[in-house]
Amino acid sequence: MQEENKGIIYLSPKEAAELLGLSENTISRYLNYADNPLPSYKISDKTIRIRKDELIKWVEEKFKRGEE
Questions:
Q1: The Cα angle at residue 67 between residues 62 and 68, in degrees rounded to 5
Q2: pLDDT tens digits for 10-44?
Q3: Does this model's pTM top 0.70?
Q4: Given strand 41-44, what is the order of strands in its sheet?
Q5: Domain limits at 11?
Q6: Total domain count for the chain?
Q7: Nearest-10 Cα torsion for 65, 36, 55, 4
Q8: Buried-most residue among 3, 8, 53, 59 (CB within 10 A)?
């Protein structure tokens, strides 16, 4: 479920995967990159949220450079 706070939209890893047309495993890999991981916020032991604006910026920058 998307959470919104002051115009900021937070996505679960599943929602981020659906938005990008990727698997949740791919999002997990992006979150765990040693160099330049996907920005995220650990809310609790089992809850991670990703800001939608940061997700889009990260993807645009990462794939513009041809990395992965």
A1: 100
A2: 999 999 999 999 999 999 999 999 998 999 999 99
A3: yes
A4: 3-5, 8-11, 47-51, 41-44
A5: 3-64
A6: 1
A7: -160
A8: 59
